[in-house]
Design goal:
Layout lengths: L2 E2 L3 H7 E3 L5 H11 L2 E7 L5 E6 L2 H4 L2 H15 L7 E5 L4 H10 L4 E6 L5 E7 L8 E8 L6 H6 L4 E8 L9 E10 L10 H4 L5 E2 L5
Amino acid sequence: MITRIREVAQLERLLGVETGVDAKRVLRLVAESGALLRGHFGLQSGAHSSYFLRFRAIGWEPELLEDVVELLVERAELREARVNVLCAESAAFALAQRVAETTTNSLVVVALDRRRRPTKELRSGAVVQGAPSVIVSDILTTGESLRPLVELAPPPAEVLAFASRLSQPPPEGVTRVTALVRPLWESVAKENCDMCRAEAPLIPAAELN
């Protein structure tokens, strides 16, 4: 069973808003979209989680998506930048498309493999050599999924994401990560999962994106 978390008080305990970001504005759009889910989720890493932030729910709402784009573009100071905008053919596509349109840059999209992980196979667009790169993601966890995009992107490359769990330095080849929120809950190994012990049905998170 999946439930949507729409109470701002609950969201404040589960999402940390980055310094300098309008917390009320960000939490409002998460609440309105119902993007934060409670359930029993199997992550691509193999870990299990009681919460899942489904960015696609925000991407479906044009006004909420526009809010996210405005916040990210201003925070990363990209309004006048001439860059390659790259993303995977995933939930991040809507965000990347609007970032490219807002900054009047071209969009480069790469395909996903069978496990729904980014590859270096171009689906659309062309990389302009000599121009810096902005890689757009919805949710960053370890940053490992960025590797094909980083290898494809001309340096210097930075990352824009709605949410990031990265506590370590940016992945190799990335100069900066700009995000709006930090998930505050922890995922667990399957063998330590209380919901597995309670025999709660497992929902593959990849199916939600």
